[in-house]
Amino acid sequence: MKTLKILAAFAIVAFMSAFTLPGTGYKVGDIATDFKLRNVDGKMVSLSDYKSAKGFIVVFTCNHCPYAKAYEDRIVALNKKYAPQGYPVIAINPNNPEKQKEDSFDLMKVRAKEKGFAFPYLFDEGQKIHPQYGATKTPHVYILQKTAKGNEVKYIGAIDDNYDEPSAVKEKYVENAVDALLKGQSIKVTETKAIGCSIKA
Q1: Parallel, antiparallel, or unpaired for β 150-157 and 140-147?
Q2: How far apart are CA 18 and CA 22, in angstroms?
Q3: Distances, alpha carbon 37 to alpha carbons 13, 94, 151, in Å
Q4: Which DSSP symbol is given to 191?
Q5: What does the alpha-carbon distance between residue 102 and residue 160 come to, in Å, rounded to a whole number?
Q6: How far is the CA of 48 from the CAs of 27, 33, 39, 92, 127, in angstroms?
Q7: Mean per-residue pLDDT of the chain
């Protein structure tokens, strides 16, 4: 009986750890500072490199996390749909490979090739960028819009409302937010719970 209670407690903790609200870091309306991170092709990438972009879909993701894997095809689709409209995906792996070997830079290159990533997949070496954003999960999304003040945070949270079953998605948070920005409208839902694996820093 005691063993069952312990197992149940662990199960509850594991379940709850998959859900989080944006913590410390950027809030909606903040201006995100630029970064310079190594892409899987070996080149250094910054947001300032994208002169014609209207904004960015910044996704903190990784190789090993089942939640991140479940969303990979949807991340690819987001880039395919919105990069031509001025909102490219910028994917960042925030995990420390010393704590999660599957998230090494070499294996990032393998994963990007396997999945056909047509967007940067950057390595947050030293885990310096994700704390600035306040990202705590993989995946964790930040939509930025270019403004006169800089890259303004317009949305923080999940990609949609069903990580497990794409066909059962009812609310496409990221698509709705970017569509609103493209139309010059206000985003109805600016923050949601990020659902995924805890970042291994």
Answers
A1: antiparallel
A2: 13
A3: 33, 11, 17
A4: B
A5: 25
A6: 21, 10, 15, 16, 20
A7: 91
Given a contact cutoff of 8 angstroms between Cβ atoms, the answer to whether 22 and 158 are in contact is no
Provide φ and ψ at 70, rounded to 5°: -65, -25
For 180-188, the CB contacts below 8 A with 24+ separation are 181/54, 181/55, 181/87, 181/143, 181/145, 181/154, 182/54, 182/85, 182/86, 182/87, 187/154, 187/155
Residue pair 108/38 in contact by the 8 Å Cβ criterion: no
Cα 68 to chain centroid, rounded: 9
Q: Which two tokens stand for residue 27?
A: 């809030």
Bridge partners of 122, per DSSP, are 39, 92
pTM score: 0.88
| 74 contacts: CB under 8 Å, gap ≥ 6 | 159, 160, 166
Strands in 55-60's sheet, in edge-to-edge order, are 31-32, 150-157, 140-147, 55-60, 89-93, 121-123, 37-39, 44-45
Q: Which two tokens stand for residue 139?
A: 């995946």
Query: Strands 89-93, 150-157: parallel, antiparallel or unpaired by DSSP?
Result: unpaired
Environment class of residue 68 by beta-carbon count within 10 Å: exposed (0-12), middle (13-18) or buried (19+)?
A: buried
Q: pLDDT tens for residues 73-88?
A: 999 999 999 999 999 9
The Cα–Cα gap between 37 and 183 comes to 31
Q: How far apart are CA 73 and CA 169, in angstroms?
A: 14
